[in-house]
């Protein structure tokens, strides 16, 4: 693969992967405006965020078998069309219930892009390169939480929250066109795969039985669900509690995103000296210490805006190290059914993320404690799963001398 093709492929896959995060982050500064227009509260508006996470989780289980059966591109096109239509209708939402349902449909569409892009990493790159490619994708994806909430804040102030969904619709159209023109097909559809419920469930079960998959998929998903708790609770913490403006919230969100992006790139250099399992353990152990201190301080009201931002920065920096490595190790044992494995991994991550987000929205108190408590609980459980689960892994697939090559 030439450097030019490599770069183009990373950008295309990164753009598809970023569609979901952009859809999550861009409307966050508009929560107070949405609450006012729809006669509800900011915490109730966050239910539309939870429904989005649920949609992604459920949708990935739908698209996984389709991606293996029909190839990556056809299901991707269908998903992007659904996303574009749902985004357009969101512009005209007049009730919270309507917005919650439309956000669910928007997620069903966008998750096709997420599953396809992750599966194509396994299709188009050698196994040994997967963790590095995921780190590069996180760099591309990382631009979205830097740009999206900042842009969303200014757009909301200038033209109202409805205009955010017009922009998201445009991004969906651009991704559809770019995928049609330039995305290579690196996977031959497996026509032997059945789309009947029982064979699909058996296929998912065979993936789930792999010790390396369930250990790293659940470790990564639980660690990462703290991010969803943060996303759901941050409008309340920054805008309501610390009285930050919509534009200011966007800039804080962008600043915190640099922790996630920067550490994911540091991960590339760490992998030259350390194995992925070592990086995961060190980062997750640090993450536990950070959230325990964060929780103790939140309960006792020790922290102001600066301290809160600093602790969240450290927390997200740990995630930037764990996520690329847990993703790579989860998918490493699979080649034939990488689409199903990718879908199941994404469904677990988004499903647990939805629960974390929903949990934050259920506590109608003007405090950071619910958000931080959920972040703490999920991180500790993630570390426990890692410690117990890795005992069942006999051989790390990551070390396999796989010779997967790029197919145009």
UniProtKB/TrEMBL annotation:
Cellular compartment(s): Cell membrane
Any Pfam family the entry gives: MFS_1
Family of the protein in this entry: Belongs to the major facilitator superfamily. Bcr/CmlA family.
Domain of life per record: Bacteria
PANTHER family reported for this sequence: CHLORAMPHENICOL EFFLUX PUMP RV0191, PURINE EFFLUX PUMP PBUE
Residue stretches making up the Major facilitator superfamily (MFS) profile domain: 6-394
InterPro entries xref list: Efflux_drug-R_Bcr/CmlA, MFS, MFS_dom, MFS_Efflux_Transporters, MFS_trans_sf
Keywords linked to the UniProt accession: Cell membrane, Membrane, Transmembrane, Transmembrane helix, Transport
Protein name per UniProt: Bcr/CflA family efflux MFS transporter
Originating organism: Pedobacter gandavensis
Bilayer topology annotation: Multi-pass membrane protein
PROSITE patterns: MFS
Membrane spanning residue stretches: 45-64, 76-94, 100-121, 133-155, 161-183, 213-231, 251-271, 278-296, 302-322, 343-363, 369-388
């Amino acid at each position: 693969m030439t450097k030019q093709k490599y770069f183009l492929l990373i950008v295309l896959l990164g753009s598809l992967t970023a569609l979901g995060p952009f859809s999550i982050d861009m409307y966050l500064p508009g929560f107070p405006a949405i609450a006012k227009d729809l006669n509800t509260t900011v915490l109730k508006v966050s239910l539309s965020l939870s429904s989005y996470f649920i949609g992604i989780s459920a949708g990935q289980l739908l698209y996984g078998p389709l991606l293996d059966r029909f190839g990556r591109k056809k299901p991707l096109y269908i998903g992007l069309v659904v996303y574009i239509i749902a985004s357009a209708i969101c512009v005209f939402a007049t009730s919270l219930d309507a917005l919650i349902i439309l956000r669910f449909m928007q997620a069903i569409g966008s998750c096709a892009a997420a599953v396809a892009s992750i599966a194509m990493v396994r299709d188009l790159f050698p196994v040994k390169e997967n963790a590095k490619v995921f780190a590069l994708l996180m760099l591309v994806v990382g631009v979205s939480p830097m740009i999206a909430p900042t842009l969303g804040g200014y757009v909301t102030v200038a033209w109202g929250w409805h205009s955010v969904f017009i922009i998201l619709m445009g991004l969906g159209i651009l991704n559809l066109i770019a995928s049609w023109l330039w995305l290579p097909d690196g996977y031959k559809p497996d026509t032997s795969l059945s789309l009947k419920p029982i064979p699909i469930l058996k296929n998912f079960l065979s993936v789930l039985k792999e010790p390396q998959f369930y250990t790293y998929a659940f470790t990564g998903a639980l660690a990462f669900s703290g991010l969803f708790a943060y996303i759901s609770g941050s409008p309340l913490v920054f805008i309501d509690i610390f009285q930050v403006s919509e534009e200011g919230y966007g800039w804080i969100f962008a600043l915190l995103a640099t922790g996630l992006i920067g550490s994911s790139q540091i991960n590339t250099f760490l992998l030259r000296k350390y194995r992925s399992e070592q990086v995961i353990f060190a980062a997750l152990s640090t993450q536990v210490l950070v959230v325990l201190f964060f929780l103790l301080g939140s309960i006792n009201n020790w922290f102001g805006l600066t301290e809160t931002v600093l602790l969240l920065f450290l927390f997200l920096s740990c995630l930037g190290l764990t996520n690329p490595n847990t993703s790579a190790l989860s998918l490493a044992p699979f080649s034939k059914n990488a689409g199903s494995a990718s879908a199941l991994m994404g469904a677990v991550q988004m499903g647990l993320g939805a629960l974390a987000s929903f949990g934050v929205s259920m506590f109608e108190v003007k405090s950071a404690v619910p958000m931080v408590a959920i972040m703490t609980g999920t991180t500790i459980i993630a570390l426990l799963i890692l410690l117990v689960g890795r005992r069942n892994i006999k051989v790390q697939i990551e070390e396999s001398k796989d010779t997967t090559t790029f197919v145009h």
